[in-house]
Amino acid sequence: MNESSSIKLLGELAQGTRGRVVRINAQGSLRRSILTMGLVPGVEITVQGRAPLGDPMEIVFRGFRLTLRKEEANGVAVEVF
């Protein structure tokens, strides 16, 4: 398995998936917002739940729960465990 096959956008991940943030792809104010929320490279996350249509989604990291819109989540690349 090559490295890129385990890298996914956070917004694509199913409930229960665990991984580590590897990079923030978003730009401008969305990038600043994501970083301010604490989603920075190296942080381990777990997808806790998703709304019925997949937007928004809830993740857990560093003991906190965070709800993200799909646009926000798709700005975060995650290495899946």
From TrEMBL:
Transmembrane stretches, start-end: none
InterPro entries, per the entry: Fe-transptr_FeoA-like (IPR007167), FeoA (IPR052713), FeoA_core_dom (IPR038157), Transcriptional_repressor_C (IPR008988)
Entry keyword annotation includes DNA-binding: no
Keyword vocabulary terms for this entry: Iron
Residues covered by the Ferrous iron transporter FeoA-like domain: 8-80
Pfam name, any one: FeoA
GO molecular function, one term: transition metal ion binding
Keyword Iron: yes
Name of the protein described by the UniProt record: Iron transporter FeoA
